Amino acid sequence: MSIYLMCLYNGTPIFNKKRGDNIENLPFSTTASFSSVHLFCRTQNVELTATTFGDDGLISWKEFESLLFVGISTNLTEKVLKSLIEKSFQAMVLHIGINEIKAAKNVDRLKRDLKSSFFQMIEKLMEYAENDLLDYNESILCHEAAVIHEKLISFSELSLASQYCFLLSKNRIICATDAFYDLHVVDRKLLILLLTQSNILQKDIPVYLPHKSPTIAYRLIGLPLIQGISIGLLCGQQPTYDELEVLSQEFWQDSYDLLLSAEISNPRNFPPTIELDSSILGFLLINKFTKKYVISRNIQQVANKRNSHRMDIIRTFFHQAVDCDIFKNSSFYDSTTENITTNEHFYVSDYHKCHALIQNYNILCVLYLSVIPTYTMRFITQELLNKLLGDKSIEW
User: Fold this and answer.
1) Residue 52, exposed/middle/buried by CB under 10 A (0-12, 13-18, 19+)?
2) How many Å apart are CA 298 and CA 278, to the nearest integer?
3) Residue 157: HSE in the Cβ half-sphere, 13 Å Cα cutoff
4) What is the pLDDT of residues 370-390, one digit of tens each?
5) Helix, strand, coil percent values for the chain (each to nearest 5)
6) Angle, CA of 191, 195 and 196, to the nearest 5°
7) DSSP states of 286-343
8) Distance of alpha carbon 175 from alpha carbon 153, whole angstroms
9) Strand 292-297 and strand 137-138: pairing?
10) The pTM is what?
C-alpha cells in the first residue's frame, strides 16, 4: 500500500506527505498538474472528485475553502481515502481555526502557523488509514470502568474542572463524561490523537473543534495520573495548568490502585477474567451510538507475526461486509430511525471464518479458526457478547 497526501493553495504545496515502502517523492510538475486538472474541470462545470489508474490506484480531490486536498493511493478504498482527506483538513482547523484558513493569502505564513504537531498528526492519520477505524474512537473494557466513571463525573463537577473530561489508557478511552461523548466523533478523535502524539511535557494546547467550535479556541489539557493513564480536559482561559495539575493529583490520589487495575486490561483491551473460546482468534466490538470500538486478539493463541494480519482481517470484514453504510435501504436497516436491527453476517474461507452479530447499537465481529463448524459460530459470538456486556461494572 502507498499513500500520497498533499494540500495545495493556488497550485503551491502547503504540505506533501507520503507513506509506503520504496515510494519516491512526487516532482513539482506532477503535483501542479493535479491542481490544474481540478481547475480545468471546475471551469467546465464538471465536478471532479475521484478517478482510478492501473489495477488498484485511486486519486481523490476535495476542495475546502481556498485549499485543495489531493490523495493518491494504491490498495485503499475510495471511502477510506476520502475520510483521510477530510480528517486532514479537520486537523488543520483544529490547529489554526477556520477563520485563518478562509483568510489565507500567504502560503509561507500558513505553513508557519501550522505547528509541527499538525504535521505529526497528518503522518499518524496516514499510518492509521489502512487499519484504523477513522470514524470511531478506540476504547478498552475493564471491570473498574463504572466506578472510575462515577469518580470522573465528580471530578468534572468541581469548579476548576471541566464538563468535557476523558480518561485515557495509552490512546484508548477508559471512560468519559456525557458532554465529551456529545462532541462529534471527529472532534474526539483528533483531540485524543493530538494529546497522545504530542511530545511536549506540559500539555496545554489551544485547539479549535472542527464541528463544535471552529472559530473560537478551547484549551486542551493533558494531565498524567499514573504511568500509562492520563486525563484530558477541554477548558476556557481559566484555570491555569498548574491549578488543574494540583487539583487532579489531590482528587485522584486515593484512586491510584483502581487506575492500576484498569491499566492491566491494556493492551489486551478487555478484562483478564473473561476467557475467550479456543476457536476465537480475535474480535472487534463496536458501539454505533457512542462511536467507539474495542479490538483484541486471543492471547491464548500462539503469538506470531500473523497477529496484526488477523486484526486487519477483522477490520476488513467490518468495512466490506458489516458496515451499515453499505447496507442502507437493505432489509435490516431502518432509514427512518437510523437504528440497526438484529442481523448476522458470515464469511468463510480456507484459512479462517468470520461472523458478525448486530444487536441494537452493538456490532460484534469475531474471527475464528477455519476448523470451527459454521453453525456453531453464532452461539459462540452471542456468548462472547453476553460476557463482554453482561457485567454492569464494565462501562460501555
Assistant:
1) exposed
2) 8
3) 7
4) 999 988 999 999 999 999 988
5) 40, 30, 30
6) 120
7) EETTTTEEEEEE-TTSPP-THHHHHHHHHHHHIIIII-GGGGTTSTTEETTTTEE--E
8) 10
9) parallel
10) 0.88
